[in-house]
User: Which sequence fits this backbone?
């Protein structure tokens, strides 16, 4: 049985709750890709993944979706194919589109139990968090995973209590200036570490993504 080990740990009732949850994940790059895979391997059955980018050679060092064979292909379609190769009967919807001011109205966020933000672009991220926190969904967000070397420094905190993360600081400044403020509290995965230049490493982005997935899973099985 595919999920036997999961059920042994969390129990049949909790597993069935997990299977009923509807999740949408924005961004399937470094952080989001690992998050998506962890969710599906654990038992999330209904997952919508959103991304507009293509696999690039520079993604090979850290993104689970990237291989030497799929460079140039849409990330979100490659991620869907990968997830279905793991759990063939999963309900995976792939949307090859950027979330921004022009496309936001095309997303019905009210139909989801969980909204996960793994977007890199600050303006798009700010808009998503503003719109997502209007809904009944539980929202989780990844802050910046670049310039980090040590996955042991990764933490979880409510957005307004995130310290030492330049992306969180920039988001808060933009939100206050634009008026696109979050409508409720949400938790973030972040790291206060600043090391090196603008590069990223698989152990760090992978831990960010796995932590995001764990937040969803723990919340879903506890309800």
Assistant:
């Amino acid at each position: 049985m595919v999920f036997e080990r999961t059920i042994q740990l969390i129990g049949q009732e909790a597993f069935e709750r997990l299977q009923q949850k509807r999740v949408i994940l924005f961004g399937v790059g470094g952080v989001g890709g690992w998050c998506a895979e962890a969710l599906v391997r654990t038992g999330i059955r209904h997952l919508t993944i959103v991304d507009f980018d293509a696999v690039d050679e520079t993604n090979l060092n850290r993104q689970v979706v990237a291989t030497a064979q799929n460079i140039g292909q849409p990330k979100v379609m490659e991620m869907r194919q990968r997830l279905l190769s793991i759990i063939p009967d999963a309900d995976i919807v792939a949307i090859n589109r950027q979330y921004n001011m022009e496309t936001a109205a095309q997303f019905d966020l009210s139909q989801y139990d969980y909204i996960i933000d793994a977007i890199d672009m600050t303006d798009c991220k700010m808009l998503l968090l503003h719109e997502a926190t209007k809904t009944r969904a539980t929202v989780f967000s990844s802050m910046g995973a670049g310039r980090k070397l040590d996955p042991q420094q990764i933490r979880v905190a409510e957005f307004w209590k995130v310290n030492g993360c330049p992306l969180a600081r920039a988001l808060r400044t933009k939100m206050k200036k634009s008026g696109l403020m979050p409508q409720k509290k949400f938790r973030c995965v972040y790291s206060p570490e600043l090391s090196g230049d603008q590069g990223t490493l698989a152990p760090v982005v992978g831990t960010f993504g796995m932590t995001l997935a764990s937040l969803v899973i723990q919340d879903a099985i506890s309800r």
Observations:
- The mean pLDDT is 96.
- Strands lie at 22-26, 46-51, 91-96, 114-117, 138-142, 155-158, 187-190.
- DSSP finds seven helices and seven strands in the chain.
- Residues 4-222 form a domain with the Rossmann fold fold (CATH 3.40.50.720).
